[in-house]
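Quick log. Single chain, no ligands specified.
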Amino acid sequence: MYLAGLLLVLWGGPDDAAAGPGAAGTPSEVAKTKYEQAIRAYQNRRYGDAVLLLEESLRLHSSPNARLLLGHCHRDLGRSGVAYQTYQAAEREAAERARQGQRQYEETRRDAIENLAELEPRVPYVTLAVPAGMPVDFAVLLDGLPVAPEGWGTRLPLDPGKHEITASGTKLRKFSRTIELRPGKHLRVDILSEREASAEVRLSLPDAPSGTLLIVDGQPSAVAKETTFLYLDPGLHRLLIRAPGHRPVRWQRRLENGELVSLHPSLHRATPRAAALALGGLSLATLVTAIALGAQAQSEDAANRPPAGVATEPSREAFATRDRIRVMAGVATGFAPLSGALAIATVGLALTADWSSARADRPRTTALTTLGGLRLMTWGGLP
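-> predicted structure:
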């Protein structure tokens, strides 16, 4: 059965790796040559050589037939786990080609499915059980290669024999375990990394806008989409949250070993800087006008006051001048408290305005530290 399949693969060529004219030495020609050499190596039972040739051919051009033959090589070398994964990849790729109208790959797909069914009872599996709440940099390595988070908790086909599992993350002691799998054995490994002395802070920011920054004790930290898990040494810690267009949020607390703190901060919109600047300008203009009118009223009053002991007869001009002086003095008197009220309102707007973008041209960490120190040195609790 296998020889017939090989002849089909050989005389069909490595599908589109040979498609289209190309001079010798071009990638498609090299892929075709490597593929044909791999078939001859397989027929001569030189499975290790065939694996190297097929991997090089697949690197140059993907082929369901070449991947199917690679699965045969791994199977005959006793690598049932790798063979199983290779057959799965060949089946998926052949099915996709068949859906695109290339019906010649239906036979490749059927062959891959038959080999999967035959190999299934002999394939060892391992399930890596990872508990929830791991730090964002938590990583699991299987035989030195990272296992993606979507592979945690699922059955992973492996070759029989010994395998090394390691795991590590922030504030966690390194987990290490060696397992040995026999053909057909299914094993569950619970990855229970012991935590170092630390406290845990869970920060929930589900509505945080893009560009939100989290500063932990002066150092930038990643912000997760839903919940950010922070593992901090026991002691005093400060958090600063900056979101574009929102008021900064500050939090400070001394944490004990093993303490768990859940924070759900509310991000409040910041006052536009333009509003604070405009109100500040109006306050200043009001104050300058009050001073100018008061000075003008005093100057005119002094200029039109008769010398001591000299009596003057009232005139229309004198009455008009006196009225003008009273008006200026009254306006100056009214503008003075108004400018004070506007100044107080300006301070209130300035404290709620977002000034962070004013120094965007400077290094981010320096600017954030400087602005945080200038704005408000006291730290309040999160709402």
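The two ends are 72 Å apart (CA to CA).
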